[in-house]
Specification:
Elements lengths: L10 E10 L5 E12 L2 E6 L9 E4 H8 L8
Antiparallel strand pairs: 1-2, 2-3, 3-4
Length: about 70
């Protein structure tokens, strides 16, 4: 895996998913990677109580869009 490929638990701001905030405004959603396998990245909302990957995209697309994302815990 290259330096810019996703890792499980990594958070990133989705470029098109929006989420309504408690104050009624909308913001881009913060997502977390739940798995990386068979050339796909599985992810869900960062505050999701489960670790189920609700969404997925090809790893090449993730690297192009979010390859510079960093894990806040690092």
């Amino acid at each position: 895996m290259g330096d810019h490929e996703p890792k499980r638990g990594q958070e990133f701001t989705h470029l098109s998913f929006r989420r309504q905030l408690p104050d009624g405004t909308n913001a881009l959603a913060v997502m977390k990677v739940t798995a990386v396998r068979r050339g796909e990245v599985f992810y869900t909302y960062a505050d999701s109580p489960t670790n189920k990957g609700d969404c997925r995209m090809p790893i090449e697309n993730w690297v192009k869009r979010y390859g510079t994302a960093v894990n806040p815990s690092e």
